[in-house]
Please model this.
Amino acid sequence: MKITAARVIVTCPGRNFVTLKIETDQGVYGIGDATLNGREKAVATCLEEHVAPLLIGRDPQRIEDIWQFLYRGSYWRRGPVQLSAVSAVDTALWDIKGKLAGMPLYQLLGGRSRERVLCYGHANGETLDDTVAAVGKYIDLGYRAIRAQSGIPGIEKAYGIARGEMHYEPADAALPTETVWDTSKYLRFVPTLFERLREEFGDEPELLHDVHHRLTPNEAAQLGKALEPHRLFWMEDPTPAENQDAFRLIRERTTTPIAVGEIFNTIWDAKTLIENQWIDYIRTTVLRAGGITHLRRIADFASLYQVRTGSHGATDLSPVTMGAAVHFDTWVPNFGIQEYMRHSEETDAVFPHDYRFEDGFLHCGEAPGHGVDIDEQLAAKYPYKPAQLPVARLEDGTMWNW
Ligand code: EZ4
Ligand code: CO
Model:
């Protein structure tokens, strides 16, 4: 059996997606997601110019060997562009293997560990009252776990605030939007938000919050401590994680659970965090951390240290990633939670899929492979639109972490 083509499809049904379609001489094909928000063309070019030619003529059944070939064979190994490309190939090959076996992906991985996959949605608002109302709306939709982000008094365009109904898309302009950041205003405000949410909604709903890399370790510890009475499910990306040792300072000072890893590319980005048990949830994804093949390795390593999975699932991860993720989550023994932001209707139409949301949980389908396809004719109607992520500056103009 041989790979005959590896084609890249770039489409913008409301936002940009890069999709890899691997075709074989037996008519079976597989789909992988290669979207890297704000740097889509870099991955598309990597796949088209450097990776696709290597795949032609190879046996698509040799997933592990192709992974090793692409990772070691590039010589340069890591990085988000390279690993997003490797992930797309790997996801497409698992899709092919599932179709050949006539089995849904979770069966190939070892079968079902749970009946359904807990997920969390994104509630946000410009003001505290708007955010409380948004959380209420998610509860009404059946969500058991909700991430709450709010506009902060005195800060323009705080992180995580939707500018349209339910569909939050931060990559909102061809050139990065400039936003402002003020740590002390943020630290004063956030505990009042969660105090209010507990008052309104009681102890039952799981509440999450994304700090989005904005704090120093000591500031993150202060926030974690202040949030302890409100019993968060997690505090995400409290500080940048290039220096994994920074998390020791947070961990030793607060019991608020910590989640990290949506930008990680391999197990090496998380090794120190996991083996020291400085985090509770690892957020690596099928799309960014080497596909199913490598994500499984990370999850198994994390399980040795009682770290659970909590994969990134924003809308810049296509339904292809969501489909593969829900299968992975259905199998992975040390599952924690899955992020789930609804895609727009346009996006859902371009990527027909059989996973579904019901009563706060995601359910994978039983179709062979990961259960997500691409409607290429429809995709062709939505040409690529340049869009980059915002940047953040302090009030005095200093560049900060967005
Ligand atoms: O900002 O995926 O937890 N979710 C997030 C996301 C990221 C975007 C960046 O492309 O942090 O909203
Ligand atoms: Co995040």
